[in-house]
Amino acid sequence: MRLAKDQIARYRAELEPWQRPSEMLRRARRLMDLMGSADLFNQPGADFITEAWAAAQFARGRYALAVRLVAARDQWPDFEIRTRRGEVERWEFTEVDHPKRRRGLEMRRADARRAAGKSTNKPLPFARLLKQVARVPRWIRARCRAKVQKRYGGRAGLLIYLNWSDFGARHAEVEQSLLPATRIAKDAFTEVWVLWETQLYQTWRAGKAAKTVKDAPGTHDAYARR
Questions:
Q1: pLDDT in tens, 122-136
Q2: pLDDT in tens, 20-60
Q3: What's this model's pTM, rounded to 2 decimal places?
């Protein structure tokens, strides 16, 4: 289901006031279910749903008291969280995926196969998976570079959602690549975190390497499987 312009404005406005991370996550999931995969990844202006989902996951993993999307008219940053110490942290968000992936088309084809009673599971050949493992750091660097080049006037952290699965292969290899892959962003942002699979990885803080790893509860939900 595609959203009308007034619906987009109304649903986004619901995510801009301070709210519990669980409440934002509930709202984001509801919108994902309402739109369905094909429309979620095809309709312009619906990317705030992805941001809300990731922001809520991040806030939960950080045990934050509250989270909100920053009003669209302000343009920067993407979201804020209120920590248990009462501090407000500003965050930019970016998503990393295979650069040649066309999710909208992919989801339409999956819906068509599902409607025809056919399987939607298409295992990735192992040889191709290994090639992608080697390319993941390059994809991350590219997204980090794009954020750095925007030269934001204020200070904020950077949350990177790695929307790619290794299907259990070479997991440690990818984890070890996160620190060098995000190095380019270490001085432009107060902190750098990566949300991948079921965990949050803090790679940089105040320009120095960090090794914090936290569980990201609930990441295996409707969006993560899309």
A1: 666 667 777 878 899
A2: 999 999 999 999 999 987 778 778 899 999 999 999 999 99
A3: 0.86
**Encoded tokens for 160:** 């990177």
Which residues, in sequence order, are CB contacts of 199 under 8 Å at separation 6+? 213, 214, 215, 216
CB atoms within 10 A of CB 207: 12
Q: Which amino acid is at 8?
A: I
User: What are the C-alpha distances in Å from 36 to residues 49, 51, 85, 191?
Assistant: 12, 16, 38, 33
Q: Are 181 and 134 in contact (CB under 8 A)?
A: no
26 CA to centre of own chain? 16
Sorted by sequence, the CB contacts under 8 Å of residue 176 that are 6+ apart come out as none
SS3 assignment for the chain: CCCCHHHHHHHHHHCCCCECHHHHHHHHHHHHHHHCHHHHCCCCCCHHHHHHHHHHHHHHHCCCCEEEECCHHHCCCCEEEECCCCCEEEEEEEEECCCCCCHHHHHHHHHHHHHCCCCCCCCCCHHHHHHHHHHHHHHHHHHHHHHHCCCCCCCCEEEEEECCCCCCCCHHHHHHHHHHHCHHHCCCCCEEEEEECCEEEEEEECCEECCCEEECCCCCCCCCCC
Q: Distance of alpha carbon 135 from its chain centroid, rounded?
A: 19
